[in-house]
Amino acid sequence: MNNIPRLLDSSLPEFRRTSWVSERARKVWESRISAVMSAWAMVEEQSVAHGIRRVALVAAFPETLSEKETRWRRMGLTAKVLTEARITSGYSSSLQPPVPGERSSLRVAIGQTDAVGEMAQAYAQNDVHSIGRALGYPECCCAFFKSTWCEAKLRDSTWPMAVGTLEGHWIDESTLQISGSAYCNILWRWMGVRAVPHLPCSFRCAATSAYGKSLVELGAATGYKEEMASLKEMLSWPIEWSALHGIAEIKTPILKLMTSTDATPVRYRVRLSGTGFPAEGATGLNFPFLEPGNSKRPLHNNVPPESDQQGTFFNGDSRAPARFNGFRTRELMDRAHAPLVRAVTDALGDVTGGRVLDLGCGDGTLLRKIVAKLGTIIPFGIDIRNSEIAQAQTLTPNHEKNFVVGNLKRTPELWARRYDIALLAIQRLEELSSHSDVTDLLSKMRASAQKLLLYQYGHSSAPEESFVLRAARLSLRFVQPPVETHMVTYGFLGKPGRTEID
Ligand SMILES: [Zn+2]
Question: Residue 170 and which of 57, 80, 212, 379 are 20 to 30 A apart at CA?
């Protein structure tokens, strides 16, 4: 199997966007992550001072360079500026030339005088192997870097790295499930969280693992015990990377990150199994979330499976009362529901006794609003959370049998009936593990429902999160352009029988 993904001839500008699974996760982990990042910068310097490697390549702003040089001199290190680059937000896979008038950042080699001299020379000659060796990178990883980064010109080495992890389990031809060494887990790099400075050749590279271990131990011994413990913990969690059409999505138990990557026509996905899971992590049926009710997690902490909603009105906060279906207040929930109620009632027209299925119905509030408006509607709902369905059954007494606990994929009786309209948040499709699962679910929905209403709560605050782009990533098309309101965006997918998936 070729380890280079199929590429499209296009690329998106660099961007990075993070969303936390909950306010609680952000509160606990945001400050820890920034502490880990600052500690890591110190570990990089210390690794040279302590002779773990000959040279480190570090970043510095021109205005603080002399201050840093004083510190490096005190550590017995020489510094030499190798290049100047434009500042991009967060981790950047490529160096951008500086722009006059904008802030720039310097790449500086620090180490013993002779080693820094050799490094500068290798750098000028673009001698990847000598640079890598001076920086302490394993030979196997230098060769990997040369073939993926320099020769195949990839900006993201994750897929070839996963393919190079020979023990990986192929779920389908573009999905790999892997277990590896936490020190080789480089999937947090866009957040600045990493145990090695280089791009490892595999998730089980023994040389990388040993190198990472020595760096983390050095960090713990030089005043960053707590930060190194947080680092090791984060790297031991399950994490998923996937890439499609130039957008990479990195899902961790506490946050989701979207960033630019190589543009591919199919979705590539890497799932790295973990050995731990944070108390603040989200529940959900899909990787990398913990299944609700799993004993590793307190049951009272039953937050929605992942906040697909953006903005502050929906934050998946465990303190938010369940009766608002994840919204902070009833008023916000009502405002988000109103356009959906209108869309459904308009679409049903004068159908009497119309059957409406809400996939992920929570406590059934949205369905009850539709019933209240049209009177003769028969509601059906499914949700993975017992407590929500119990509530829905209590609140919708004439139709309690129509509310079931279950997973969309594993509930055949759901698809045995006919519905006039089925409603689904786009997030539910995105959570499915493969393209064929998406195709599968959609064909079931099409076979039993006349109309499919797809929606997302919130309006897109960033173009890469737009509803249309999210749908395009799933190869979905709408019969009409989606309607975007401040609180919800929605559109109808094609009629049953029409193929939306290419
Ligand atoms: Zn290696």
Answer: 212
